[in-house]
Specification:
The protein is built from 9 helices and 14 strands. By secondary structure, the chain is of the alpha+beta class. A hairpin with a 4-residue loop joins strand 7 and strand 8. The protein is elongated, with a radius of gyration of 25 Å.
Length: 415
């Protein structure tokens, strides 16, 4: 299993009741109240009991994904939620063990697809409206090769729950790759300008399913750029611009790490930073990080904190096939065994699954984006794309199919 990196700062998109707000009382039992800007009061997403369980299980997928993908010494950012949307969409075309494995990996083992779809739609429709100072966009789309046809039920579900209207295109037109990348750029404010390249794009693919998530939040308490100084950063050969402020934030600690909550806007979104203790590492944190453990970091006491935080940018371009197999989703990638009978009019499997993600963090706030792409391929013989212009003399034959008996033969010269 690959190890993790310093960039395990987790930008948790709104996931129900797991926001890192201040606890009702501090260690001295003094009440603490979060004051939001007038006219921009925080709005919460109301989850059912079942949906709250979905959040818990899907957060476990987030931690499992990061444990399986991260490398020691290499900055990385991923969006587990983006993967959840792309796979949740495709899951409506799956059946049998393929569907079971997708559900189990995402943490939706005991949940029906209708509940998953409803939950995804709730986040899709409500997340952009929680904070006037924070911009959140979630988008999905499907590009379909003109030689194939998606099942009607799959198309209607995609439209209803994921706002994804399939677009049929000629994948051999030399333009589709650019169209896909343009969609990614348009739905991430140009942060992700390319999700596929000429090597990863397959003109014979059946379909490409994409999800994009974009986040831009302004710190509730911004850093003063005049306070930013270049300082030594452990493990780096160069000095790093370190932002600084001394303010009241949510804070907690344990034997493994210090934990800090930096809210955005009206506190509907926030960044939780887990800083390992001296002698500890990110690996130590990740080893036992589960949804239950994560909850211990979600309700913090107020403290005046002397904060130093790097100003940085980071991006990740990651193929997910092997990682998802490692997590238990094997059958969807098997050419002759994947079960997607409700997706398309030919047998299909996942040929490629990848994500590009990027983050910019500075004195004003955070901008982050991710695009997940799933290439759906077919194990049936793909139709060849040729040009046939009968604009010169030709021969023709009329025959009977079952016997091959020639009934007529002729040629044509244009007269």
């Amino acid at each position: 299993m690959k190890k993790s990196v310093w960039a395990a700062i987790t930008l948790m998109m709104v996931m129900g009741t797991t926001g890192c707000g201040l606890s009702d009382k501090n260690e001295d039992n003094d009440p603490k109240v979060v004051i939001c800007p007038t006219g921009n009061e925080r709005v919460d997403i109301k989850l059912t009991t079942e949906e709250a369980q979905l959040v818990n299980h899907n957060n476990d997928f987030a931690f499992n994904l990061f444990r399986a993908s991260a490398e020691t010494g290499k900055s990385q950012i991923l969006s587990p939620l983006s993967i959840t949307y792309a796979l949740g969409l495709l899951n409506n075309g799956a059946a049998g063990e393929t569907k079971t494995q997708i559900n189990e990996v995402l943490g939706f083992k005991a949940t029906g697809e209708n509940d998953i779809n409803t939950f995804c739609h709730k986040l899709l429709s409500q997340s952009p409206h929680l904070d006037m100072l924070t911009k959140v966009m979630i988008a999905n789309t499907i590009f379909v090769n003109q030689d194939y046809q998606l099942k009607d039920n799959f198309v209607s579900t995609a439209k209803q729950f994921y706002d994804a209207t399939p677009e049929t295109r000629d994948f051999h037109d030399g333009k589709t790759l650019g169209v896909i990348n343009q969609w990614a750029s348009d739905h991430t404010e140009k942060m992700i300008e390319k999700i596929l390249n000429e090597q990863s794009f397959k003109p014979d693919a059946v379909s490409y399913l994409l999800n994009a998530i974009y986040f831009k939040g302004m710190w509730s308490k911004m850093f003063n750029a005049d306070e930013t100084k270049n300082e030594t950063f452990e493990g780096s050969s160069k000095q790093i611009p370190m932002m600084h402020q001394n303010e009241e934030f949510g804070y907690t600690e344990n034997e493994l790490c210090q934990a800090l909550c930096l809210p955005y806007g009206n506190h509907a979104y926030q960044m939780t930073i887990l800083l390992p203790r001296e002698g500890k590492s990110i690996d130590d944190l990740l080893q036992g990080l589960t949804t239950q453990e994560w909850k211990n970091y979600q309700y913090m006491n107020a403290a005046t904190v002397d904060v130093k935080l790097p100003r940085f940018e980071s991006e990740t371009d990651l193929e997910l096939n092997d990682i998802m197999k490692q997590l238990g989703m094997t059958k969807a990638f098997m050419e002759n065994a994947a079960e997607f009978p409700e997706f398309c009019n030919v047998p299909t499997f996942i040929g490629l699954m990848k994500q590009c993600a990027r983050i910019k963090l500075n004195e004003e706030g955070t901008e982050a984006a991710a695009v997940t792409a799933i290439e759906v391929a077919t194990n049936a013989s793909a139709p060849r794309h040729v040009t046939f212009h009968a604009n010169r003399p030709f021969l023709y034959v009329i025959s009977e199919y079952s016997t091959g008996a020639i009934f007529f033969i002729g040629q044509y010269y244009g007269d």
